[in-house]
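Curious: can you check?
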Amino acid sequence: MTMDDWANIIRDTNRTLDISWAGWPIVTFMVISGVVMLNLVIAVLCEALNNLSEEKKKEKEQEQEKERDEEEKGLDPDDEQVYDVQGTLYSKNDIVNKFELAELARVSMSVIIVQKLLNLQFFYKKFLALSSVR
């Protein structure tokens, strides 16, 4: 089946049996084995190509499903789309809006903290003023 050294096997068979046609069964076996192996290789290649085409079909279906989801949500198809870890779809505008809200929350927290510090400073000054009066 490996087609290695088959000529020596035929020569040895012809010498041992002293029959001229003794090599024909070996040659027939070699040809059939070669055809079977070639058929196996072709079958593996066809299966791989078939799987590849099925994967491409699945990818196209997923892309079409995403487009339908975007259309249902009313998202702009030209707007950049991003998926988070859970698979939720966000547009670039959504992310910018969330960032702006987070930044606004951070700034408002900073303002509240400054106000609290100013109040503490005011009360501290009053406390010092009252304690120095006594």
About this structure: Residues 81-134 form one domain. The mean pLDDT is 77. The chain has three helices and two strands.
